[in-house]
Design a protein that fits this description.
Structural class: alpha+beta
Number of helices: 4
Bound molecules: coenzyme A
CATH architecture: 3-Layer(aba) Sandwich
Helix content: 25-40%
Strand order of the largest sheet: 1-2-3-4-5-7-6
Length: 164
């Protein structure tokens, strides 16, 4: 009886992304990136045959986030690519980035993917930490590839994870 009043650990579930999710996905992307993609862009990506995604939804708690996180992925033949992965700042460091990436990696593998690629800004310590922990390693770099909100150019690292 008393347990009902005690705060429970916030739990999240990982589900396949549906086209209905696109407006919440675009809103969360816009909160975390200075160059947001519109919900139309997410919708047209997600309706392409080789593109899929996963969303993280909060299952309990007093104040529910509209969307806790998502990953969008492309898998063609034996290669996959992470298009973007985002976690809400209020759900940061709770293992959601990890769980979303694992869901994407498993699905790429299930579709016949043997390797998974991504691009990341070399100043993005959170993403680099996540990708390295998942076994991604640098295979290339593109100098001055991104421009931040202050106009500063930064390098994109190309990373790869073998899925075999
Ligand atoms: C990158 C991002 C998805 C990580 O999501 P997250 O749910 O907070 O990450 P997790 O809790 O799953 O962390 C997994 C590991 O990633 C690394 N990591 C996560 N956040 C980190 C941070 N702020 N600094 C350093 N390493 C970090 C750690 O190795 C962590 O493992 P640990 O907690 O056991 O140390 C999230 O910070 C984010 O959405 N950033 C903005 C969008 C973005 O940059 N996306 C990636 C580029 S497309």
């Amino acid at each position: 009886m008393l347990e009902a009043y005690l705060p429970r650990k916030t739990e999240f579930e990982i589900l396949p992304m549906q086209t209905d999710d696109c407006s919440r996905v675009a809103a969360l992307h816009g909160e975390r990136f200075s160059r947001p993609w519109g919900d139309g862009e997410f919708h047209s990506l997600l309706t392409q045959p080789y593109v899929f995604g996963f969303v993280a939804r909060q299952m309990n708690g007093l104040f529910k986030l509209p969307l806790a996180g998502f990953v969008l992925t492309r898998a063609v033949a034996d290669e996959g690519e992470i298009l973007t992965v985002v976690v809400h700042t209020k759900a940061a460091r709770a293992g959601l980035g990890w769980r979303l990436m694992l869901a994407a990696m498993r699905e790429v593998h299930a579709r016949g993917g043997e390797s998974l690629f991504l691009e990341v800004d070399d100043t993005n310590q959170a993403a680099l930490g996540l990708y390295r922990k998942l076994g991604f390693a640098k295979v290339g770099e593109r100098p001055a590839y991104y421009t931040d909100k202050n106009g500063v150019r930064t390098t994109a690292l190309v990373m790869k994870r073998d899925l075999r």
